[in-house]
């Protein structure tokens, strides 16, 4: 299964992807996570990406397509993968189509739809685990103990780009650069839109239906 999760920042892509990949047995490929890992380890990629991420801008297509090309060429992607946060521009979508030419193309692109005003609340209340990357929300998915990860005991932090000002910029960038992909994938006949504005489990159930899975 080669799947793309599409949707604005805060739609719930990462939250759903974490659960989905355990059911589908494919790797979870998040360009945002890859860039954050590169920043933590201080690689040249991290240094370059950080400048864009801090401003809420996209990392240039050549760089982003390059890391995805390397990643999906790995042996663990042979049976498929779940892309989360890639592609985000038309150029990236076209590059992905080229990478997958001869491999049957994408099986599904799931567009997770959430109203704009809710996205701001979701993003500014998001907290992440420093150690395992688990995603929480102060109101909607709160950890049992404040600032402590339920699953690994790691410390929770707020992403620098989840401050209100950068969030607004990211939502603008989404509208201009990423939203056109909805039409692109509709034309290819692979797009399915689901309602992301409901409980996390209800979104997961709708995702399962859209992918033709029966998890009960
Ligand atoms: P969110 O989960 O809020 O949508 P991500 O973790 O996916 O955010 O991405 C964080 C940042 O990493 C983006 O704002 C952008 O700067 C960079 N980034 C992630 N994916 C891409 C991509 N496909 N193309 C360009 N930049 C990207
Ligand atoms: P994305 O990867 O699309 O940026 P995340 O999965 O990181 O989105 O979710 C953004 C924030 O919203 C997180 O704090 C997460 O806990 C919360 N969240 C995710 N799904 C839902 C939902 N269905 N209802 C309420 N909050 C949610
Ligand atoms: Zn953790």
Question: Would you give an account of this structure?
Answer:
It is a single chain. The chain is globular. Helices cover 47% and strands 15% of the residues. Strands 2-3-1-4-8 form a five-stranded parallel beta sheet, with helices on both faces. By secondary structure, the protein is α/β, with parallel strands linked by helices. It has helices spanning 13-24, 31-40, 44-55, 61-72, 90-100, 116-124, 164-178, 180-188, 200-210; strands at 2-6, 28-30, 81-84, 108-113, 126-129, 135-137, 156-157, 191-195. The structure holds adenosine-5'-diphosphate (ADP) (2 copies) and zinc ion (ZN).
| Nearest-integer average pLDDT | 97
Bound molecules: adenosine-5'-diphosphate, zinc ion
Number of helices: 9
Biggest sheet features? 5 strands, parallel
Instruction: Give the radius of gyration.
Output: 17 Å
